[in-house]
Structure formats: C-alpha cells, structure tokens
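Materials and Methods. Structural model of Pre-mRNA-processing-splicing factor 8. The 170-residue sequence of Pre-mRNA-processing-splicing factor 8 from Artemisia annua was retrieved and submitted for structure prediction as follows.
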Amino acid sequence: MYLLLFYPNRSLCVLVQVEVALRDLILSDYAKKINVNTSVLAQSEIREIILGAEITPPSQQRQQIAETEKQNLVLAVTTRTTNVHGDDSTTSPYKQSAFASKTDWRVRAISATNLYLRVNHIYVNLDDIKETWCTYIVPKIILKKFICIANLRTQISGYLYGVVYEDDVI
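The predicted structure was written out as tokens:
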C-alpha cells in the first residue's frame, strides 16, 4: 500500500514561514509583471492576487476612474425644480456614477463566512479506502486552512509532497 505523508515532522512555525514565503513570491511575481511596488497594494488587492483573481493594474484603474470623471464633466446635467412652497432646488449627477471593481470578492467573502463550520463535519468513509490506492494523510490544520480561505466559486489548490516508504510498495 502506498502511503504519502504530508508534512511528517514540520512544526507550525515552519508552515507559517513557508506560507509567508509563498505569499511574497506570488506578490513579487505580480509586481514584476505589472511594474508596480508591492508596498502600494491594498489588502483587498493582495487577497485577490493570492486567490488568483484577475485584477487590473492600478494605473489602468486610475485611467478608468479618470475617464468616468471626464464623462461626468462632459455630460453634466443639472435639474432645477421648484416645490409648492416656492423653494428652488438644484440637483446634479455629481458622484452618482461610482467606479466598481469587476471582481465581487466582498460578496463572496461574506457568503463564505460559515465555511469554517464545515471543518467540524469532515469524516472519512472507510469503505472508500482501498489497499491498492495511494492514501494521502493531510493534517486537519492544513485542511482547515484550505477551507477557511476558500469560497464557493474559487477553486483552491495546494502542492502535496512527501515520501513513499519502501516497505509499503506493493
């Protein structure tokens, strides 16, 4: 029987260091690709980058915001109305058009707030385990982390590594 052990003798401190190193690698790759410094990225942008969402570079976002503001200046329409008391009121569409991100990560984050409760309801059906298959043992802390960072639309993946013991080879 093949037995693949995932992180057999790693401490929590080592796992945190690996996670931080992977985050830094992903962010530096993104920053190099779009030619921006990682220190100017907002936490929402960092989350979208790590989860693999397609986001536009900050320069393109600024350009879209500028175009929206320019359109508002060109097409500015003011409306003057008078109520029954003779009071004049003037309305304009100033700041009624808002720039919106194409990714709806806030909605997905709110809908995924109860995913951590699913960790307590995970079980392994012994009928599904076969001796001819390779068995993966994943610690609950890693499984919990995957579930907590997931949401209902984004697929989360990870890299498994380990050893196959020679005496377990069929």
